[in-house]
Amino acid sequence: MIDAISFTNDTLRYLDQRFLPLREEYIATKNHREAIEAIKTLAVRGAPLIGVAAGYTVILGINEFRGTKDEFPAYFRQLIADVEASRPTAVNLFFATARMKEVYDAGYTSMTLESLFAVMHEAARKIHEDEIANCDAMSRHGVELIKSDLEATLKTRKLTVLTHCNTGTLATGGSGTALGVIKLAWQEGLIEKVITAESRPLLQGLRLTAWELEQEKIPYFSISDSSSAFLMQREMIDFGIVGADRIAANGDTANKIGTCAHAISAFHHNIPFYIAAPVSTIDITITDGSQIPIEERSEDELRTIFGTQVALPSTPVINYAFDVTPGKFLRGIITDKKAVVGNYSNGLKELFEE
């Protein structure tokens, strides 16, 4: 069983994903700044897992507080700001900090700090428990949609699926979003093999998804990101499914850079391409993908590969961590509540009204 993150005895323990698959290294910390750095440096990554880590990071921060009750509000505001600055694109992080702020707002006046901190501890743990349950529900909704959409093909053979980046236990703490759907589909005999795109420049697909599939004993092979269109042309891919870091109200989806190219190719080849993400990843306050902040990361992530220089240090680089796939290229958005197909503006809004 993969243990991506846990919180016991006021200690955050996580699997440092930067070293996978060559080394499994677990880090334990009680320092909230170390936890923030883990999120920034992608030691902890994946939108849902970032949300879980953010909740626990707030707890580490309040555990370090040594002032009076009157001094706590300013400390708490700065703590939240520091956590939110770690990864600007992953909306789950802001979902987690918003939840912690709600608990603070509801209890600060009426509770002692000790009682307030206890309630906040429980809120952070609940974020983690909810993500695990969300993965299970999402997997079921996704499998049912795949069965429906690919019914004709499934009558003759099993399916080959393309995925990008990493969306499994390492990204969520549960079974996964897109990879959770794939795992359940494999268990139910729908999947023959998985194609995992390498996901440059940090190779989450080649390193992390491949590692998870090895653990699950699910057949797979890895490809360069630019290979997917050719494989679709040769009818070697039946459908694609990926996760998301933020989804706009109209279905436009920010995900690991390279996703949009896969989706456009799938659309061109009439291949279903799905997003799997919890409702917490949907930012209903923004109308379309142009309003999603896209993180730009260090130039050296592209100029070097695991410390080895592969380009001149002076080479100018644009290194966007994410791209935005327009909703029109998606067959469906699979959430923990249900799968939304078609009119995303109405369908996604309804998820917040149920």
Gyration radius, rounded = 20 Å
- Total count of helical runs of at least 4 residues: 13
What's the helical proportion of residues?
40-55%
Beta-strand content:
15-25%
Which shape, going by the Cα principal axes? globular
CATH fold category name of the largest domain: Rossmann fold
Indicate the CATH architecture of the largest domain.
3-Layer(aba) Sandwich
Sheet with the most strands? 7 strands, mixed
Secondary-structure element sequence?
EEEHHHHHHEHHEHEHEEEHEEHEEEEEH
Query: Ends: how far apart?
Result: 34 Å
Structural class: alpha/beta
Number of strands: 16
State the CATH class of the largest domain.
Answer: Alpha Beta
Instruction: Give me the CATH superfamily of the largest domain.
Output: Translation initiation factor eif-2b, domain 2
- Chain-averaged pLDDT: 95
Spans of at least 5 consecutive residues whose pLDDT stays below 50 are none
> How many separate domains make up the residues?
2
Which strand order do you get reading across the main beta sheet? 6-5-4-7-10-15-16
